[in-house]
Amino acid sequence: MSRSAWSMLFTLAATTALTACSGSSSTTTAPATNPSRTQVVAVSPVGGATGIDPAAPIVVSFSHAMRAGAQIYVSLHEGTVTGAIVSGTATWSTDSMKLTFMPSTPLKAHTTYALHMGGDMMDDRGDAVDLSTCTQFGGQAATGQMMGSGGMMGGGEMGSGWQTPGSSTYGMVFTFTTG
After folding, report:
1. Which terminus of the chain has a lower count of CB atoms within 10 Å, N or C?
2. pLDDT tens digits, 69-115
């Protein structure tokens, strides 16, 4: 079986398994639209979700193994993408396809948070992740206006690794509210 066929089969199996296990409106999965590029296949909680458990982890799943260290291009902010960064621990699954972020302390109740994923995250082949499926999970492109003119945090989340290749955007943002 060709690499492309294996990739499509894996993505379908992963999507089916994640869908069967979710049962919650805070998690959505989507099939990869371009199986030759690594894509986001699940985000929990999804953008726009409300009533999220403040003690729950934030999880992003990919269709292919990710490059070691790619987690530095994922951050959680209180309020908007320009809000304070929430401290916590980001860990990869053993196959490097699922990133789990666990805040150091439970999130505040009835508070909005913004998950920011850099636009130039790399998989373990050295290819940028295709973020086109992120809108299916309530994600929206992080524009310069959202990030604040003049470079958010001294250019930290607008610098290398954060800008979407061939675009003027800076990855994707998923906003959710805790219960």
Report:
1. N
2. 999 999 999 999 999 999 999 999 999 999 999 999 999 999 999 99
Number of neighbours of residue 53 by Cβ within 10 angstroms: 14
What's the token pair of residue 56? 């729950």
Question: Is the Cβ–Cβ distance between 43 and 28 less than 8 Å?
Answer: yes
Number of domains making up the chain: 1
Q: Is the pTM of this model over 0.85?
A: no
Instruction: Say how far apart CA 114 and CA 94 lie, in whole Å.
Output: 26
User: Any idea what the CATH number is for the domain that residue 106 is in?
Assistant: 2.60.40.1220
CA dist., res. 79 & res. 119, Å (int) = 20
Note down the domain range covering 118. Answer: 3-177
Q: H or E segment at 22?
A: helix 3-22
